[in-house]
Design brief:
Layout (H helix, E strand, L loop, with lengths): L2 H7 L13 H13 L9 E6 L2 H9 L6 H4 L2 E8 L4 H15 L7 H11 L3 H26 L3 E2 L7 H8 L6 E10 L18 H4 L5
Antiparallel strand pairs: 1-2, 2-4, 3-4
């Protein structure tokens, strides 16, 4: 399915039917999310893939009782770093150096310059910046799901501190940012399924500066 057609097909599914998504489709969505761009290539987030029924039930209770959480095949949670550090940045750059087979000190100057910018901005800025990178991956995953004709419901409607507790994220230096149940729409019971997709008209949405 062409991307534009896939994006026209998708919508924020309000009711899912519990059908399992084939593993190859889940893998495709996760690979797309992994390949998403991020600032300086740091990928300051992780994705948790949840199929455990008991855990999904608990997440639903702290997600304003949204049924998609329990009716989905998989629930994906994006958890961003709670802050940057020289050690975290160095670990990413060290992996890049090893994978590319370049000299060990090849990225030292850039690494020090980057940390020199980030360090004084404080942990709140760090956490917000990391979360913004997670949003990019999240958007790519939604598009990939649509391409695979897998339904998805983007969610900010949950209590992050409670999801953090359920997944033990604080101990990992992470904070939950976004939740994405994926599965298949329940055509008979989803009030949104047949409603027209509405977006801002092109002439209002796009401003050309020549």
């Amino acid at each position: 399915m062409a991307l534009i057609d896939a994006l026209k097909w998708r919508y924020a599914t309000k009711k899912m039917n519990g059908q399992a998504v084939p593993q190859e489709k889940v893998d495709y969505i996760l690979e797309a999310a992994k390949l998403a761009p991020s600032s300086s290539g740091l990928q300051p987030y992780k994705i948790f893939v949840i199929t455990n029924k008991e855990l999904k039930d608990k997440i639903r209770t702290v997600s304003f009782d949204q049924s998609q959480v329990t009716d989905a095949s998989h629930v994906l949670v994006w958890a961003a770093w709670d802050g940057y550090s020289l050690e975290k940045i160095s670990a990413v750059f060290d992996r890049t150096i090893a994978e590319r087979g370049i000299p060990a000190n090849a990225m030292d100057e850039y690494k020090q310059r980057l940390w020199g910018m980030y360090e004084p901005l404080g942990q709140e800025w760090h956490a917000n910046h990391a979360a913004k990178q997670a949003y990019i991956s999240f958007g790519v995953a939604i598009a990939a799901a649509a391409e695979q004709q897998v339904d998805a419901t983007p969610m900010e409607g949950f209590i992050p501190a409670e999801v953090d507790k359920l997944l033990g994220l604080s101990e990992l230096g992470l904070k939950s940012v976004l939740v994405l149940p994926i599965g298949y729409r329940d055509d008979a019971n989803d009030w949104l399924v047949n409603l027209k997709k509405v977006r801002t008209p092109q002439d209002e949405f796009i401003t050309e500066i020549k």
